[in-house]
Amino acid sequence: MKSKLIFATNNQHKVDEVRHVIGDRFEIVTLREAGIDIDITEPHDTLEENATEKSHTIFHLTGQDCFSEDTGLETDALNGEPGVKSARYAGEGRDFQRNIDKLMLKLQGQHNRKARFRAVISLILSGKEYQFEGICEGRIATEQKGLQGFGYDPVFVPDGADKSFAEMSMEEKNQYNHRQKAMTKLIHFLSQSS
Length: 194
Ligand code: ITT
Description:
There is one protein chain. This protein has helices at 12-22, 47-62, 96-106, 170-174, 178-193, and strands at 3-7, 26-30, 66-75, 82-83, 114-125, 128-140, 156-158. The chain is α/β, with parallel strands linked by helices. Strands 1, 2, 3, 4, 5, 6 and 7 form a seven-stranded mixed sheet that branches. The longest helix has 16 residues, at 47-62. The radius of gyration is 17 Å and the shape is globular. It starts with a strand and ends with a helix. The protein binds inosine 5'-triphosphate. Inosine 5'-triphosphate (ITT) is lined by residues 9-11, 14, 42, 69-71, 73, 86-87, 96, 99, 117, 149-153, 165, 179.
């Protein structure tokens, strides 16, 4: 029988990426499919605490196995900004383009464009929490390119590539993807514990 996990996210792009690699053994149920319509707050200063907040909120509502994921884009020149504030960098509207514009303005003229995506997954299995991290190193391009993906994808170029995440198919992005690296650890963990 398939193991069922609620994915505690309101970001459909994340769901699409995760479903692409999860395989047949696990069934991912979105918040909408679980009949849950809430905007979970992310009030903390770390990705780890925010991931915990999201998974615990859904676990308390449903009592079911679930996981959440919190990602931050960390730039060296801006001391880790936007980091934990990545989704709301340019304000509560969570506008992807405005977030990119703010980042590009702050990095204008900056030679050190080194950056990384860091994802933290919080899994709650039988009431107990486990965390998994995935990191993708790269740099912020000097111009925005590509139309695929979401968020900061048009300005992020992973190490080992010469194009932005937004210029890649989902298969290509998943070869570098921070979220996928964390998911691989989660899948490995679930395979061993079932
Ligand atoms: P949930 O909390 O509902 O899961 P969210 O969009 O608020 O969805 P996060 O709190 O993890 O997700 O915010 C991280 C932000 O970082 C997200 O809104 C994007 O702008 C950006 N981001 C995350 N993963 C990304 C990726 O793979 N490519 C580009 N940008 C990404």
